[in-house]
Amino acid sequence: MEFDQLETFLVVASKLGFHRAAAVLHVSQPAVSARIKALEHSLGVRLFERTPKELTLTQAGRVLQPHAERLLTKASEARKAMEKLHTVHGGSLQIAAAFSISAYFLPDVLKRFQRAQPDVTVTIRSGHSKEVLEMVLSGKADIGLARSLQHPEIETLSLHDDPLMLVASPAQAPKTRRARLEEVASWPLIFFDHGGSDWTLAHGLFRSHGQVPNIAFEVDSIETAKRMVERGVGFAFLPHLAVGRELRRGRLSAIKIQDVEPVHRSLDVIHLRDHRLRSQALAFLQSVRETVSEVYAFSATAKSPKQTIAKQTIAKQAIA
Questions:
Q1: How many other C-beta atoms lie within 10 A of the C-beta of residue 269?
Q2: Domain-terminating residue out of 257, 283, 305
Q3: Are residues 287 and 222 in the same domain?
Q4: Residue 47 has what DSSP assignment?
Q5: Number of compact structural domains in the chain
Q6: Which of 41, 168, 187, 302 has the least C-beta neighbours within 10 A?
Q7: Is this model's pTM higher than 0.70 or not?
């Protein structure tokens, strides 16, 4: 018993004629006859009494009619529910994000996304970048936001450069806002998230140049480190994303290390490769892209070529 057979049965029952039913269904009369015959065979009953002058429902046909109507109604409701999942309005979206991205970037994205798509329910899960990767790979998240991630099963869209910056309170920073790494190594440094990617990168910067950093404090979060720096407790290597506002407002100062290359990382969006994104996810990507442009509009790195590349990449790859 198939849905097209039930639909044909109901049209024949209402029109009481195979020819008229064929016209309504836009199929041939033999096709209508074949569907009814197949339905009768599968049910083991006759559904119509045929005479040269008229076509009437048998008792079995009359019993089947309300059931067929309910089945087709439920099928239509199920189809509409599935279609709703693929429309921009309504539905749900699972996002995984690195801790710092979740704290300093996602709120602006979600505010913008909520204005555009108020009916979409968004679930956020935070973790280290490797945990974000695992959530996307396992299907627990539709989209991940992390830093500098590559994996053969993952499509990575680089949105913008998010360097790890050495920052200090304006009163504590050197007047030139410049220093050599050897000098920085002697300053009281505040490291955060022991063993995390930022901790590892900052440590690696000193190790690769034969320096041992003077770690005065180790704390568990970027926010704690940032507040300590603002109060003049020490210096810290912090993501630009976390300190951009404070730098613009003069609450923190960036210090350029003259004799080493800056520690660069990219702010990335990831999703499963060869996996078509639902419209909710595409709308979220658009909000991410617009927020990136806004967040970095007043920063010194706003003209990074990655920003232009990201716009082209999302447009081409996100809908693949």
A1: 27
A2: 257
A3: no
A4: -
A5: 3
A6: 41
A7: no
262 φ/ψ sector (left φ>0, alpha ψ -120 to 50, else beta)? beta
Residue among 270, 311, 305, 309 at smallest CA distance from 290: 311
Long-range Cβ pairs for the range 291-296 (8 Å, 24+)? 291/105, 291/108, 291/109, 291/112, 292/159, 292/160, 292/267, 294/108, 295/105, 295/108, 295/241, 295/244, 296/160, 296/244
* Whether residue 154 sits in one domain with residue 295: yes
Domain end: 33, 61, 85, which one? 85
Q: Are residues 168 and 102 in the same domain?
A: no
Q: How confident is the model at residue 25 (pLDDT cuts 50, 70, 90)?
A: confident
Size of the chain, expressed as the number of residues it contains: 320
Let me know whether 13 and 70 are in one domain: yes
15-30 average pLDDT score:
87
246 shares its domain with 270: no
Q: Which residues contact 298 (CB under 8 A, 6 or more apart)?
A: 248
The closest alpha carbon to 15, from 55, 51, 45, belongs to 55
